[in-house]
Automatic annotation (TrEMBL):
An annotated Gene Ontology molecular function: isomerase activity
Any coiled-coil regions, as ranges: none
Record protein name field: Sugar phosphate isomerase/epimerase
Domain Xylose isomerase-like TIM barrel: 24-240
Keywords, in A-Z order: Isomerase
SUPFAM superfamilies: Xylose isomerase-like
InterPro entries noted in UniProt: IolE/XylAMocC-like, Xyl_isomerase-like_sf, Xyl_isomerase-like_TIM-brl
A Pfam family reported for this protein in Swiss-Prot or TrEMBL: AP_endonuc_2
Amino acid sequence: MWTLSGFSDEISPELTEQASLLGELGLSYLEFRSAWGTNVLDLDDEQLTRAKDLLDTRGLRVSSIGSPIGKIFLDEDFEAHLDRARHAVDVAHRFDAPYIRVFSFFMRPGSDPDHARDEVLRRMRALAEVAERGGVVLLHENEKEIYGDIPRRCVDLLESVGSPNLRAAWDAANFVQVGVRPFTEGYAALRPHLEYVQIKDAHLADGEVCAAGRGDGEVAETVRALREDGFDGFFSLEPHLSQAHSLGGFSGPELFTEAWQAFTALLKEEGIEHR
């Protein structure tokens, strides 16, 4: 059975409000990206304890730490970022989260990502080693404007690093926003590496984000294929229906609910059970 999760900071900056709506929608997992307007990796010890206690009280578990690891430019200091990755592992342990979301570094405007391949791979191997030592799995998200923004480079990255602790998080909307038809052009190559699915959609014409199944993200086709090949994992709502920026997005309670309704309706049409 598939398990639904979601970037609950898209509901509200307040963790209590996030938890309340997740409970109303019947979700028992969240992707922990921020609380009280602060990124999860910047929460102090007291805030982390408060967050853990609140989630435990509400019966909520963390599917993944929605970290910004890898969301720096390739010419920025990596050693400090590597320390941040180690902290992310500690936070994952604190919340019993099996996954940490990561990225493969922003490219400067006008630069050729392929020319940055060697340095990207060096850094991603170092991050994978941190994950291996920490016993967690890094999920590489195909964010736009990073090295791994298109299927070819995502596959190259994952295969070249070759670590079981570095896997793919599939984001259809991000592929659409770089001109890729996700299922048609990327699914077959990325499926062997695919561990986790983020749910949002977008229109090829202008890149505008929309609810799942309402754009060009080929969400239904992807869902069918995952069902047919026995995928069993998390589907994490990341609607971005109100705002989107380099470190996340926002939807609000009504639009987050709309995103949940759209995706669960699609699953119902396909006869797929979820929890």
